[in-house]
Amino acid sequence: MTDATSAARWRVAILATVLIAGGGGYWLGQSGKSDAPTETASGGRKILYYYDPMFPNQKFDKPGKSPFMDMQLEPKYADEGGGAAPGVSIDPSARQSLGIRVVAAEMGSLAATFDVNGSVDFNQRDVAIVQARSGGFVERVYRLAPGDVIGAGAPIAELQLPEWGSAQTEYLSVKKLGKPELTAAARQRLRLMGMPEGVIAEVDRSGRTGGRLTVRAPIGGVVQTLNARAGVTLASGQTLAEISGLGTVWLNAALPEAQAGLVKIGQPATANLTAFPGEAFTGRVVAILPTAAADSRTLTVRIELANRGGRLRPGMFAVVALGGDAKPTLLVPSEAVIRTGTRSIVMLEKGDGRYHPAEVVAGREGGGKTEILRGLAPGEKVVASGQFLLDSEASLTGLTVRPLEPAQ
């Protein structure tokens, strides 16, 4: 066999191999096209993948039944989340099964009052300190003890004050001289020693001296301390008793820090006590203490209540209704607000079957409603049920949250 014949045979073998490979590739290509999954729906929209709306993070290549829930997988189209109408689209037939409920933001008013707990305390501005105005000793103490309730003018103790006796004798001697200037000066000295006008008038009337004084309660109330004891020697300015008045009492209410801006000094308050069911005690806020309790994050609101008949006793527990006038505000259901920790979001219904997230500024809550300060307009529809599913889908598709308008 010649070299030319061998070369010709090699050429024929190589050509046959190329034809066979090309034909096989063509038929394999045709076979692959017939078995590939469909990438377009009947409407011509391109399908990216399939997913379970209850588990949107899990993606599937083919349609079918969800392995998680008893429902069919939903297609995810390429044009969702972009184009002229961005948003999350939900098939109308699936809304009921997903539990999506939509309500409109509307103007209304939250409850004008809210309840906090408090306890009754003495009015620390209504306190009387009984002291000895001059040195001497205690002759008699009336039957009193700390905690006793006494009326104004009730006797506490009888004192013997030698300095007063000598000053009164000097005053009578000067008075006999018949010189008004000297008499007035001597009388003024008695006043400066703390002698009551009634005692001075009695000396003028009777012409007799006596350093004895009956100390009486200047106000009615509770005896807090009683230092007077019979036979005890007194120094000038020594405290004999301390009395707390009961005409008015303080009600110290624990106000949560989040509601501190709702209470102002001078506004009315109503208290209900378990000791007097069905009866309301009205008062007003006289102070909001400047420090907050670190453990409970509450502020102390001081309310002054009239205590007719002395029925309100320090230490009693009370429920206090605080608040002001109800003002119109924009309200949505509280469950419609998604709080992420850094901002608050609601899901808006666009009106064409699509939903879009929007940032809002939430205010007070009450009665299942939340106040919206910024980010919504009256009449806009928000999702009140199923919003977390839509928010998750919006995050997957990369939808931009509608930002807040600049503050006015």
Question: Low-confidence segments, ≥5 residues, pLDDT <50?
Answer: 1-8, 12-38, 81-85
Structural class: alpha+beta
- The CATH homologous superfamily of the largest domain is termed RNA polymerase II/Efflux pump adaptor protein, barrel-sandwich hybrid domain
Number of helices: 6
Principal-axis shape equals rod-shaped
Please state the average pLDDT score: 80
Second-tier CATH architecture of the largest domain = Beta Barrel
What amount of the residues lies in strands?
35-45%
Q: Give the domain tally.
A: 5
What is the number of beta strands?
Answer: 26
| Largest sheet: number of strands, sense, barrel closure | 7 strands, antiparallel
Distance between the first and last residues' Cα:
101 Å
Q: In the CATH scheme, what's the topology name of the largest domain?
A: OB fold (Dihydrolipoamide Acetyltransferase, E2P)
Radius of gyration: 45 Å
- The first-level CATH class of the largest domain is given as Mainly Beta
Share in helix: 10-25%
